Amino acid sequence: MRIVITGGMGFIGITLARRLVADGHDVALLDNLTVQIHGELPWVDVPEGVTIHRMDVRQLTDHPEILEGVDAVFHLAAETGTAQSMYRIAEYVSVNELGTATLLQAIAKCTVKPRQVILASSRSVYGEGAYVSESNPEHILQPAPRTKEQMLKGIWEPTDNRGANLKAVATPESLAFAPGSVYAATKASQELLLNSAALALGFRSTIFRFQNVYGEGQSLQNPYTGIISIFFNRARQGRDIPIYEDGLESRDFIHISDIVDGLVASLEADLPPGAVMNLGAGEPTSVKDLASALLNAAGLDVATRVTGQFRVGDIRHCYADLARARALIGFQPKISLAAGLKRFCDWAAGQPIHVDKLDSATEELRKKGLTN
Fold it and tell me: What is the pTM of this model?
């Protein structure tokens, strides 16, 4: 197959590209190589034979030939991260929404259009995700995003309309959009744009909602996204690990190799138009437990510190219901968190040490009223 990956030089994109090349596909990557992710002098070990277009996705309208006649497009190009999206609003909307619109307009210009466009969306579109109450455990609820006022009082857990705490359960794809951040809103918009144009433009749309992806190759210098990379970069320098809220907030951590398995499986699967699937490990891990497991995997001994800080727009819990991905593409995560962290730490230990920017990033958010 001929395949194009937007955002192809990023963490997920380059890992996917290596797999596709190993499987015998013809791969082209499109990426603008932003400094925050790639550093001042970007360098990535690109597989031999891969074509690279150093280009912002918003320039694709002028270069539809890149997409002409390809079998599939993996659309990964995006601004990521909740916190920055709350004050870099125009930039997130431009890159994520206009970037997707530009991709679609470029496809419209093609004489032979791509057969499939596969979007990397996010679990953030669910907002706080799926919960149940003790009184009615069969009925899924979707609480409103937590407010800054709630979190200033240390009220971390979502509650029902009577103020009773709710229990997080696996989030299914049927849950409605409820974005609690600008980033989440732009990911929802990407989905709507893709599905609204697919039939008219004659391609099959496929959407994956990623949980928290980690693994070898993840940026070790971005202080806004990638909690595992951020924690490791501090710990290897003997710095403590600050944990937000009460440390019991949880995430679904999925290793990059499992993500790539899911993406590749979608190329050959007999999927219905507009298929939407969660990709995650399917189980929650508290941030406090994650920090402990990471330090154990890395063989490092530094203090962890529960700070009571928070970020506006962050969710409390969310983990994936994988039933649909299992049914449609036979998806089953293979890498346990312990094994994945060991693989990540073994790789990261051999990478250059980067100046820790977490404190300065946190201070920037504080000045903008987005953290306490």
Answer: 0.94
